[in-house]
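Reopening this ticket.

The earlier resolution said the output was attached, but the attachment link was broken on my side. Pasting everything inline this time so it's all in one place.
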Amino acid sequence: MTRRGVGMRDMTRRRAGRLRGLAALLALALPLALPAMAQPPEDVFPPWQNGANNDATPRGLSFTVPEVDVLADFHGDPIDPKLALFVGGNYYFAMAPLVAAFEKANPAYRGHIYWETIPPGLLVQQIKAGGTVTCGNMTWTVKADAYFAGFAKIKQLIADGVLDGPAVPYVTNTLTIMVPKGNPGHVTGLADLGKPGIRLVMPNPAYEGIARQIKASLVKAGGDALAEAVYATKVHDGTTILTHIHHRQTPLFLMQGRGDAGVTWQSEAMFQEQAGHPITHVEIPASQNSTAIYAGAVVKGAMHPDAARAWLAFIHSDTALTIFERYGFKPYKQAE
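Inline output:
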């Protein structure tokens, strides 16, 4: 090898040595400059039922990656179900035991029930789109047999010709203030939600019917000024985050430290507490609270109308009401 070639080789070695030294210094310095961020536990992320809300058998390959690849509000096998239920998501956690009880009494449906639990307004959009929905890179079509939402919404959709009567009411629910365990924001009631330092995670009025009841309760607690502060001023300044799926996003964001409080149905807070998640709630007094009446009806043109009617008969049975009561729901009474 020539003298020049040897010199070039030595220079290359010296450069490589300097680079290795620099890399070693960076490896030591980076942990000091960039401390490791706390990684939230996997069970913070939906789905939270460990597969219990999937009625399909067999299930084939299991591929669920929390926070990355998960369809938390779509349940069962969409290919040729015998009963398809579009359920306003406020009691997604009760659906697994409800379906199990229904199938015990009606074994022909076992493993063949499909249900969705996204907000009721979005479910109506899906119904009007012929049952087609897209989530991420996946598009599929399931035509609903029965639809469930607030009683007033059900009656309106019957009048509009989207649903067939009669409307079948079955349970009621009330609001609560969901907070992280320990209540770091020291929230004591609805009036506190208007304070500038309290970060909120609130249902979006554009998608979620619960927002109407929340606004009514805010007005009861602090007048129009409180409702304006929560749903306008704080949205504008970024201290109110508006959700698309309050029954999933509100507790998730609170557990991630992105908010101090959010108003939800009390059943949702009770489920989170029963699941052992770091969530608790602050009760809203009856004088400021709002009550929802849940109801359902057969979807016009349903492919399985007899199955839909069987579910509607089941949903207000003693068996179903006992399941609902685990989460604080109360049976609907005509006087209400």
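Reporter confirms the inline version is readable. Residues 84 and 114 are 5 Å apart (CA to CA). Confidence is low (pLDDT under 50) at residues 2-9, 19-39.
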